[in-house]
Amino acid sequence: MLAAVGAVLTAVAAASPAGPPTLEVVRAASRLASGTLVTAADVRLSEVVEAALPEAPLTDVSAVVGRRLVGPAARGEVLTALDVISGPGSVGAGHVVAPLRLDDADVAALIQPGLLIDVIAADPEGAGAKPIARSVRVLTVPAPTDEGSRTRTAEGGALVLVDVDVPTATLLAQAAATSRISVVLRM
User: Which one of 33, 132, 159, 164 has the minimum C-beta count within 10 Å?
Assistant: First the structure.
């Protein structure tokens, strides 16, 4: 009798349709801010139905640990290669990642990774303003890491990391030393 019950259960299981195909992918273990340096505790692997996945999901935790997020990630969000700055390949050939400190924190709040911006340098004495870089790609807007950074951000804008060539990085550094920096958003 026990064998008969086992045979019936096996037949029922075999007749049941298989679930949709899944893939084990990297997901955010909690809400993560833009610019977060990802640790092993920040991510987890879990099975997700393939049809529900974004394009090119990451399947290896080592692909994100030690890298920075280019934008915020919600708890449970599936991470892709576009979500992290991954070293030399994250910027164009002959380009560098340059820091840009914007003077206005409210303007900085409008900036998102991937956005193209024009960088404007304004004379602090009001003698004029001029564009110093056009169509610059924003990589990330790092979150402040300590209380001192939060105070600087509230008083003096925010840090933005951008993808530029070396001559433009030099112009940005020079302008930062002598001018007030702002941006124009390209849509």
Answer: 33
pLDDT for 87 beyond 90? no
Q: What CATH number does residue 36 fall under?
A: 3.90.1210.10
Res. 15 pLDDT band, cuts 50 70 90: low
If asked whether residues 40 and 96 sit together in one domain, one would say no
DSSP string, the chain: -HHHHHHHHHHHHHHSPPPPPEEEEEEESS-B-TT-B--GGGEEEEEEEGGGPPSSB---GGGTTT-EESS-B-TTPBPBGGGEE-SGGGS-TTEEEEEEEES-HHHHTT--TT-EEEEEEE-TTSS-EEEEEEEEEEEE-PPP-SHHHHHHHHHH-EEEEEEEEHHHHHHHHHHHHHSEEEEEEE-
Containing structural domain, residue 158: 89-186
pTM (2 decimals)?
0.57
Residue 10 lies in a domain: no
44-48, 96-100, 102-106: range with highest mean pLDDT? 44-48
